[in-house]
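Subject: sequence -> structure tokens, single chain

Hey, anyone have a minute? Need the predicted structure for the following. Not urgent.
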Amino acid sequence: MIKPLTSLRFFFALAVFFSHLAFLKNDLKYSRVYDSIFSEGFLGVSFFFILSGFILALNYESKFVEDRVSYKDYILGRIARIYPMHILTMLFALPLSYKVFYKYILFHITLTQSFIPDKDFYFSLNAPSWSISDEMFFYCLLPFLILFFNKNKHILTMMIASGILLIFALNIYLPASDQHYWIYVNPFIRLIDFIIGIALYKVYKYFKSLKTPLIRYANHEILSILIFIVFFVFKDKVDISYRYSIYYFIPMCLIILCFALSGDNSKQGLFSKILSNKLLVKGGEISFSFYLWHLLVIPYFQIVITKMGLNVPAEIQIILMLFLTIVISYVSFEFIEKYFNTKIKEYFKS
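Reply:
Had a minute. Here:
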């Protein structure tokens, strides 16, 4: 585990959480903050996709190349990792869509909802699970991608360049109404994020192999954060369709690379030391549960306060929603996610 990267997962999950506080649009006190800052939280998904490619390449490349893990065992490990929480949160989402859930449930069980270019499908039931559908697609391809790129090293660069050009073309020629699905949701397009993560691991491995480090950990951590802030500050100068994907590629890659290199080194920078704190690392560990729970906690909480006729200030709502999501996520992680992850693997091994 590279602790700073684990902790960063929690902060980007928080960004997604704040982006879904849409009720703030109608609050005069917070509408500007939501529109200028919180609504951009969708960038967290790009971070997760790139980080996923990086971490899986880090954990599995040598195993695939040396044939130390079978495809079956690898896939079962991935299923054990994501399905317990996905199925649980899907069941909790059913009461919110009880009239039409039968249309979508098969797609959610098979994690194929993101392949359907219809908002009613890919955002059905527990909406954030569309990205888990993408991830499962990436997981299935990972062994083949790693082995292919190892034999054809120049193809990796060409694929990334071609993918970025394709995104530019989609931005130019697609109608605005279709851009959200084809650029932000579609698994074939978002595969580019994942492949960039694999390429980033190869860059990381190169830096690690150098006898004289080129990275000055503290300086480069700060630089990567500053570059991300600059991109964020100037985001309104860029069309949202680009921000859905390629706009944040550079700052995301720099953050992942710098904190990966610093996080597994004894000469950590200040930010890596902070992010290695046990509490923040635990936040990162529960981030998957947090991500799947947050858009259930938000509507259920609002239903409850509406039914009770309560007039709760927006800031109190945010604090309570965030607190409940963290508590539920922690309990889910400790007693469901970890438990079923182990049990599923033991069952198939036996």
